[in-house]
Amino acid sequence: MFEPQEPADPAAPFEQRKPGWGVADLVVFAVFFLGTVLFFPLIALYTMRIFRPSLRVADLSTVDQVVLQGLMDVLLVAFIFFLVKVVRGRSFLETIHWYRRHQFTTGSLISLGATLAITVLLVSALFPTTNQTPIEKMISSAKSLYVFAIFGIFVAPMFEEIIFRGFLFKVFYEMSGPGVAVPATAFLFALLHSFQLWGNWAAIALIFAVGYVLGFLRNRSSSLLPGLIVHTSYNAMLFAMYALSTLVQNGLKPGGH
């Protein structure tokens, strides 16, 4: 069993810890991240045109988009593994703080995630938008909702937690301590999701708040697992509520449009 490298007590003096990661690591990851986001979809689209010559971006189904997102996530986590294991020669699990020892119970974390989701939905209802966000357009049918929900519950939380509260939190923490790591990773977390929620500024602000809570848990527990449980529970409740609302309002049935 690995022992935490960061103190579980957030009041422990930061000056006692020797920084290992720095600005150069952030720049390298940022360049790779931007390159992946900008060029991977284009490469994938041209590859798909080998089998579907007339394919356009507008023709991509929800399944296509979810698969592309999953592949990008895999590529980003693989690059993080390369930086940690090959470039720095560190333990990947220790670096992302995959520690089972923390002071939170699973039930309390699941409840927190569900409560956050309900709170976000209630607050969002106070700031309605007239236009559909990109993510709402993606899940306009029951079939697309189910596909996106499976990805959002069973795949996305793991990759996003490794990227944000695992690697990036570790880098920011060793550079400047938790006072920077928590809000910085929350901001980047919200920035990533802003592409899905563009136009709904209240929802983006709420995503920042959720990211802040996840960062706080990461710092408080010195473990990635509490945030992963909360994130999974949060997404599951969001999709459950959205599915219920969609089925009630539109009368959608499995496989319907």
Q: Are there runs of 5+ residues with pLDDT below 50, and where? A: 8-19, 252-257
Q: Give the SSE string.
A: HHHHHHHHHH
- The shape, in one word, is globular
Helical percent range? 55-70%
Which sheet architecture does the biggest sheet show?
none
Mean pLDDT across the residues is: 86
**First and last CA, distance:** 49 Å
How many alpha or pi helices?
10
Number of strand segments: 0
Based on CA atoms alone, the radius of gyration comes out at 19 Å
Percent in strands? under 5%
Structural class: mainly alpha
Quick structural gist:
The chain is mostly helical and 257 residues long. It is built from ten helices and no strands.
Which properties best describe this structure?
single chain; mainly alpha; globular
Structure description:
There is one protein chain. The N and C termini lie far apart (49 Å). Helix content is 70%, strand content 0%. By secondary structure, the chain is mainly alpha-helical.
